[in-house]
Amino acid sequence: MKQLLLCLLLIAAMPALYAGNDSLLAVLSKTIASSAEYDKTKLREIEHLKQPSATHGQATTTVFNNYQQVYNAYKTFNYDSAYTYATKLVNLAYAMQDAHNIAAARLDLSFILLSAGLYKETCDSLNILAAHTIPADLKGDYYTLWGRYYYDLAGYANDRYHSVDYDIKGGLYLDSALAFFDSTSFEYTYYKGLRLFKQGNKQDASVFFEKLLRNPAMDEHQLALTASTYSAIFLQDGDTEKAIDLLIQATIADIRSSTKETVAIFHLAELLHKQGDLKHAALCIENAISNAEFYGARQRKVQASSILPLIEGERINGIEAQKNLWVKYAVVVTLLVVALVVLTWIVLRQVKELKKAQQALKEANAVQQAINRQLEESNRQLAEVNEKLGEANKIKEEYIGYFFNLDSEFYSKLDKVKNTIEQKLQEKRYDDIRFFLNKIDARKEKDELLLSFDHIFIKLFPNFVAEVNALLREEEKITLREGELLSTDLRIFALMRMGVTDPEKIARILEYSVKTIYSYKSRVKNKAAIPGDEFEERVMQIKSL
Asked: 335 exposed, middle or buried (CB, 10 Å; 0-12, 13-18, 19+)?
């Protein structure tokens, strides 16, 4: 399941694989930090595999198979242990006198010798195997080992003289190996891509490697092998970023599978060093050396010796440069601290002055606000006075005009009476004078006077009746008779609203006693829905039109 998830992860990452390796480096760092946990898991699996092989009384074939399983677990994990079990396999195979098992055991021994960088011993072992008949199902592995042997020699020699011949021989053996692999197998696809790459046909080789990377059935070791080899194509094309990405993927897969015999992390450290990423380069080379020592891979130790001094040298230079930089920073920081102290003192002094100014301003604002409140109150009172004055002027104008008109009518009537009486006296018609005087109705004149007052008042205060009723309880509202403008109750409060507040004056105007006036007022107040004093105040606040 882990292998499948890792393959799916790589497949999902392929479209963005070359968008930058920062996130992959972060994953790599975490994976390296967890490598001990992966190794513990690997050791538990190996211990589980060892238990059956330690049981006595088993069939030889079963023991051989058990040894084979333990060897497979060790072969990329630890050389010494793998070599021990490879030797056991060889001895047991010869004891069984089984040609197939002898060839298989010899191939296992040759593989582990090659992985450890023991090239002479590898060649001797393969030559011994060549003296035997190789079973058909093992010929692919046999020729592959020869091919790997010569390719590794070419890489180890790394010159213009011997490496070319080694590569040619390795390619010939791979051609032989491909003939024995199933065309759908991992081995065929991988070694076909490798062969094309070695021949310089990078485009066709990429097709095979891409096909493998899209295959979710690969295990972690196969994934690491494919990604590591594929990175060399991009590196030759000058695409270092893509090469680094693939090597990171290969290294992560190696760590998760506890593969200690690996070349990917060495190449990754070298490329990161060239890119100037000393931090990750050092992390990789340290892990690579640890792996080489744990496994016992001699050629990897030699490989590390050519990279480690460069990385460590630059790290030391970087540390010295950083030290000098820190000294400069310390000087600058010290100057800044001194400047900061001075500025702080200046700022604190300014803040103190500012606080004094703010306090003075606050006090001035408080005084100003008090003055503003007094002014607003004065303006409000003045507005009320102006409103009352305006209302009084309006009432005065209406009633002055009304009484001038009334006086004019009164004097006209008086003059008419005078002329009529004088005429009757001249004519000595005294009975007519008495008859004429009896025709004058003072009560009627008074009622007409009050009705005129009502007309003028309702003209000035058209909503007076409705607003008074709004202050009374619902069942006590005043209802006027037809043609009536104001009732006696309302007329009393109308006179009060006009400014006639003296009960004696109201009594004289309406020709009632003062007691009657008080009685009328009390009766209306008792009908109010609010307290009596508030009722009278609300009536006095009724606005004129």
From this structure: exposed
